[in-house]
Amino acid sequence: MSMRTSPKTTQLKTVFDSNVYVAAALRPGQYADRWLDIAALPGSGLALFASDYILAEVRRKLTDRFALPDTVVGQFIDRIKVTATIVSPNFELLVVEGDPDDNAIVACAVEAQAQLIVTADSDLLKLNPYQGIGITHPKELKNIFAEAYKT
């Protein structure tokens, strides 16, 4: 349990796919970026989890594919580290054949005992649910966290 959790707050343990983080970095102020802000708020009900693998994937995509400067990428990764609890799965899953990035998202969720994976990846969305973990598109978060989204 994170330091920002009060005993009265029920938090939904959530893992964001790297595509959600990339969208947040590329579109400040838009929905993905707002969800990262909401997860950082005490009492938001959203407990965010990530892994070193996810952070490395986000860094790689922002640097290689989108050519963001290292300083900007570093600051964004630091923002995730402040907001999310970092877990280290010591196992590999083969849930989505041929896609280690998707498998790492699911492994992070299993390790964190998450209740929700948020992704725009169709291969992951097809798994919904996976071992009791719900998998949803980022646009659906506004229905789950209607009060937080209004802020």
Structural write-up:
It is built from 8 helices and 5 strands, in the order E-H-H-E-H-H-E-H-E-H-E-H-H. The protein has a single domain (13-150), classed as 5'-nuclease (Rossmann fold, 3-Layer(aba) Sandwich), CATH 3.40.50. It has a 5-stranded parallel beta sheet with strand order 3-2-1-4-5, sandwiched between helices. Residues 1-8 have low confidence and may be disordered. With 151 residues, the protein is of the alpha/beta class. It has helices at 18-26, 31-40, 52-65, 70-83, 100-112, 122-125, 141-144, 146-150, and strands at 12-16, 46-51, 85-87, 116-118, 134-136. Helix 6 (122-125) links the parallel strand 4 (116-118) and strand 5. The longest helix has 14 residues, at 52-65.
Helix content: 40-55%
Structural class by SSE content: alpha/beta
Strand order of the largest sheet: 3-2-1-4-5
Radius of gyration, whole Å: 14 Å
Low-confidence stretches: 1-8
List the helices and strands and how they pair.
Elements: E1 12-16, H1 18-26, H2 31-40, E2 46-51, H3 52-65, H4 70-83, E3 85-87, H5 100-112, E4 116-118, H6 122-125, E5 134-136, H7 141-144, H8 146-150
Parallel strand pairs: 1-2, 1-4, 2-3, 4-5
